[in-house]
Design goal:
- With 395 residues, the protein is of the alpha/beta class.
- It contains 11 helices and 13 strands.
- Among the domains are: 219 residues, Rossmann fold (3-Layer(aba) Sandwich), CATH 3.40.50.300; 51 residues, no CATH class.
- It is globular, with a radius of gyration of 25 Å.
- A 6-stranded mixed beta sheet has the order 6-10-11-3-12-13, sandwiched between helices. It has a 4-stranded antiparallel beta sheet with strand order 2-1-4-5, covered by helices on one side.
- The termini are far apart.
Length: 395
């Protein structure tokens, strides 16, 4: 049941301020606050990161909700407080076949872009240049749960490229959105650029150091970035008339924003999203220490499990620069919940070496040192310390 529904006009904003969760998925009780810009939800596996995104999406959904109540309760509840409205929902579904009926949340679904984990772009032949898809509000409510698809990305991009030469009908906003879409291909590598639309097949051709390729033949990482940026640009133009990409003021959800991406590309993508959609509220989940190492402390929402296995906010006690001075190993252990960042063989060997040193067992010291010497990084500081120790023994 909704406390209130306020339908917004095209140019207004919608931002999530607070989310209270009780008995949904694996979350017993959790209260989160969000800033109006970037929010990065992190933590170990099973802590409920994706559940949080699914709950936010449910506040805009129509049918087939992606959330279930916790097995220990008869009903779960959540309250999503936005800057212009509040949504209060009960969740009684538990079995996979259980589905709640229709809800009215979808009326503001145009202000939510949900990008789920599947972001593949497969080749599709365009026999004609498609027109823009017009969706009624309830279909946007279905899309809020299902997430954006890649089906219309190529058609939208080809349409805009081909019609951009028209003097009438093609607005300045459409032109600027297209320019940003074309630039996005060089976001990760300035040598990979949009080249032209093949008039014989309506295919998008890119220029790379290795020659021309179809844009569907990009690497998985590249296509992930193109899916996200072009997918959002396309949806903005489908849903609103003449809304420029950097004035869209809705919510963008991205589950596992780092998926398929090299660490250097992960931070490039996140910085690009913050720049391109600078008036949007962006809420993402991640397993990447590289992303956490590159953002501001107020952008981090760290979750962990307490001694009872319940999801809670992890208090990191961060300074002014957040995690930007932490090593990747420290982030993996203290934030992402990894028990260690070295191999089991290394842990066993270094412990055996230390014990042999304490016992003054020369044969064991030498045997374990030989293993470590073959195992450590060529420039490892520990390697040099071990060499000094072994040199001292030989003297």
């Amino acid at each position: 049941m909704n406390i209130s529904i306020l339908v917004l006009d095209g140019g207004k904003k919608l931002k999530l301020e607070k989310l209270d969760i009780n008995g949904i998925g694996g979350i017993k009780q959790l209260s989160l606050t969000f800033n109006p810009g970037l929010n990065v939800i992190c933590g170990e596996n099973g802590v409920g990161k994706t559940t949080v995104l699914n709950i936010i999406a449910d506040a805009f959904s129509y049918t087939n909700r992606a959330i279930k109540r916790n097995v220990a309760v008869e009903k779960g509840t959540y309250t999503a407080k936005f800057d212009v409205k509040a949504v209060n929902e009960e969740v009684t579904d538990f079995d996979p076949e259980d589905h709640s009926g229709m809800r009215n949340n979808y009326r503001d679904a145009m202000y939510l872009m949900n990008l789920r984990v599947n972001r593949d772009i497969k080749y599709c032949k365009l026999n004609a240049v498609p027109s823009d898809t017009q969706r009624p509000d309830y279909q946007l409510g279905q899309q809020a749960t299902a997430g954006l698809s890649s089906d219309e990305i190529k058609g939208w991009f080809v349409n805009r490229c081909l019609y951009s030469r028209q003097e009438r009908g093609f607005t300045e906003v459409m032109r600027k959105n297209l320019e940003m879409a074309q630039k996005s291909f060089g976001m990760l590598d300035e040598k990979t650029l949009f080249d032209y639309i093949d008039p014989r097949s309506n295919d998008v051709i890119l220029k790379t150091p290795k020659g021309e390729i179809y844009f569907e033949y990009l690497s998985s990482g590249y296509k992930t970035c193109i899916f996200i940026i072009l997918g959002i640009l396309k949806e903005i133009e489908f849903r609103f008339k003449d809304v420029l990409y950097d004035t869209y003021s809705g919510i963008i959800l991205i589950d596992e924003v780092d998926i398929h991406l090299h660490p250097t590309w992960q931070t490039k993508l996140l910085n690009a999203l913050k720049t391109i959609f600078r008036n949007s509220q962006i809420i993402v989940t991640t397993h990447s220490p590289s992303i956490l190492q590159s953002i501001e402390k107020e952008e981090i929402i760290a979750l962990t499990l307490n001694e009872n296995g319940e999801t809670i906010i992890e208090e990191l006690n961060l300074g002014e620069y957040g995690l930007q001075g932490w090593t990747l190993e420290e982030i993996l252990q203290d934030v992402m919940g990894m028990p260690g960042t070295t191999s089991e063989l290394y842990e066993v060997t270094i412990k055996a070496f230390d014990k042999a040193m304490d016992d003054e067992n020369i044969p064991e010291i030498k045997r374990n040192y030989e293993i470590l010497d073959k195992m450590l990084h060529p420039d490892s500081t520990l390697r040099k310390l071990l060499q000094i120790q072994m040199a001292g023994m030989e003297e």
